[in-house]
Amino acid sequence: MKNSEKTEIAIIGGTGFEKLLGKARQLRLGTPYGIPAPLYVGKINRKRIVLLLRHGPNHSIPPHKINYKANIYALYKIGVERILATNAVGAINLNFKPGDIVVPDDFVDFTKLRCTTFFDKAPVTHIDVSQPYCPEIRKLLIETARRLGFNVRNKAVLVCTEGPRYETPAEIEMFRRLGCEVVGMTGIPEAVLARELEMCYASICYVSNMAAGIQERLTALELSKVSKNVVPKIEQVLIEAIKTLPHKRNCPCANALRDARFG
Ligand code: HPA
């Protein structure tokens, strides 16, 4: 790949982020893991950015059918070193409310059917997730959101469920007792796969609803109403964060494989 083709920063977004890059060129790639979601290459402040819409352009890929490995591998192949992701979540913590912006610092994986590793064979690889999200990008997202005047929750445990159904009230109560504060269906295995390829990854989430059993019903209409209001704020944070992201990485993510293997 020519150096001028290299794209070091990626945004992974859900539905509603289609226009984030303005003018962008679509890139279709194949990977050993299958076809990723379409990638769009554009610019923010002269930096080349790739946008990946994980649900596809028309919200046609449900959370449990997203090809997470193909998506992350495609980003890796075009030279991406840092991923700024965003996810819609339901709030389990009663102090959170719809419209809130949350930057999780930890996660619990309750997915059931997803392949969560690139390392199915030797060398056996155990990636360290003591610090599950990139500390440098988390800090930047929090500081940027605050600078723009948005209220942001700077810590939360995210639980990822398989979907596509929402959770039952009993499941949400269980997650609450386990210390989980927000729930979503797409944050994992993205974060883990990115770490395995030594890419930085952090997510800025927005609360689209209170989780099941806390509010009476969950409807697509209500969730999209909340999302419509908050998505422009998230886009603003992502764009401003990328403008100030230092060129050199100052975090341990780039060396994630260094101590991950025996022998
Ligand atoms: N549960 C799971 N995923 C979600 C929710 C929820 O309540 N809201 C947005 N994504």
Description:
The model has no long low-confidence stretch (mean pLDDT 95). The protein has one domain: Nucleoside phosphorylase domain (Rossmann fold, 3-Layer(aba) Sandwich), CATH 3.40.50. The chain contains 5 helices and 11 strands. Helix 2 packs across helix 5. Strands 1, 2, 3, 4, 5, 6, 7, 8, 9, 10 and 11 form an 11-stranded mixed sheet that branches. It has 263 residues and is of the alpha/beta class. Helices cover 24% and strands 22% of the residues.
The total beta strand count reads 11
Rg from C-alpha positions? 17 Å
Q: Give the CATH H-level superfamily.
A: Nucleoside phosphorylase domain
Which CATH architecture is right?
Answer: 3-Layer(aba) Sandwich
Distance N terminus to C terminus?
A: 33 Å
Number of domains: 1
Strand % is 15-25%
Topology-level CATH name: Rossmann fold
**Largest beta sheet, briefly?**
11 strands, mixed
Q: Any ligands, ions or cofactors bound here, and which?
A: hypoxanthine
CATH class membership: Alpha Beta
Integer average pLDDT = 95
**What order do the SSEs take from the amino end to the carboxyl end, as H and E?**
EEEEHEEEHEEHEHEH
Unreliable segments of 5+ consecutive residues: none
Alpha plus pi helix count: 5
Helix content estimate: 10-25%
| Classification by helices and strands | alpha/beta
* Basic shape: globular
